[in-house]
Design a protein that fits this description.
This protein is an alpha/beta fold. It is built from 7 helices and 7 strands, in the order H-H-E-E-H-E-H-E-H-E-H-E-E-H. The chain has a single domain, classed as Glycerol-3-phosphate (1)-acyltransferase, CATH 3.40.1130. A 7-stranded mixed β-sheet has the order 1-7-6-2-5-3-4, sandwiched between helices. The longest helix is centred in the first third of the chain and has 31 residues. The protein is globular and about 50 Å long.
Length: 249
């Protein structure tokens, strides 16, 4: 049972990061509207603010491991909470996300997502959504960068198994790009829902790149095996059991 003070501090932390999103978003808005560079600068400034306040307010330290991809690649990442989004985006030079369409209507986030070149997907239309996603990604090739996709399609709590969606495999085939898997343990400290934040070392790790040209089913199996195994290892390193998530005393 967490101490009530930790819950109160977590609540203050959550409130201030959303206020900071509003303030930073408005300050950078003129620059972002005339230049995509302004949008990247705004978002990276916000990420660094969140990391700094997370460290001294709720005790969450962040660490990025592995070779950070800088070329035109697809990053297929484990998604546990808002924190892994910020850690990946801040680490790479020009990240853009495959994101659910509803986020376009979110204040601040929606505007900046458009400026960054993020690709919205209507998750309710499956086949049509995948075809449109491929077309929209192709349009964004005019502005090279790192395309970030969450292969399970949503935030997944630590220790929960959820299937990997076919969209990642289709993009891998269609784009003929290197895919860089990314594992994480951030959900142990910054959960996908709720207010409480727990102290610890939140890690995102870029794994061995998967070269283009593999059979789609082989690629998906290799991707899932690499990401899930490494994410489990990062959780164990943090003092948790992947099955059941019991913290060691």
């Amino acid at each position: 049972m967490p101490h009530p003070l930790r819950w109160v501090i977590s609540l203050v932390f959550v409130i201030q990061i959303y206020l900071a999103m509003l303030v930073i978003g408005l300050i950078f808005a003129p620059y972002a509207l005339i230049s995509r560079e302004g949008a990247f600068k705004a978002c990276k400034t916000y990420c660094r603010w969140v990391f700094w306040t997370a460290r001294w307010m709720v005790g969450i330290r962040t660490e990025v491991r592995g070779e950070v991809p800088t070329g035109e690649v697809m990053i297929a990442a484990k998604h546990q909470s808002f924190l892994d989004i910020m850690m990946i985006f801040n680490a790479v030079p020009r990240g853009k996300f495959i994101m659910k369409r509803e986020l376009l209507w979110t204040p601040i986030i929606g505007i900046y997502a458009k400026r960054l070149g993020c690709v919205p997907v209507d998750r309710g239309k499956r086949g049509a959504a995948i075809a449109k996603m491929v077309r929209d990604v192709a349009k964004e090739f005019s502005d090279p960068g790192q395309l970030i996709i969450y292969s399970q399609g949503t935030r997944v709590a630590p220790g929960v198994r959820q299937p990997y969606k076919v969209g990642t495999g289709i993009l891998y085939q269609e784009l003929s790009q290197v895919c860089v898997p990314a594992a994480t343990n951030v959900g142990l400290f910054w959960p996908r829902t709720g207010v409480l934040r727990s102290p610890g070392l939140a890690v995102v790790e870029f794994l061995e790149p998967i070269p283009p040209g593999r059979d789609r089913k082989v690629f998906m199996a290799d991707l899932e095996k690499a990401v899930e195994a490494r994410s489990d290892a990062l959780m164990v390193e943090a003092g948790f059991e992947p099955n059941g998530l019991h913290q060691h005393g």
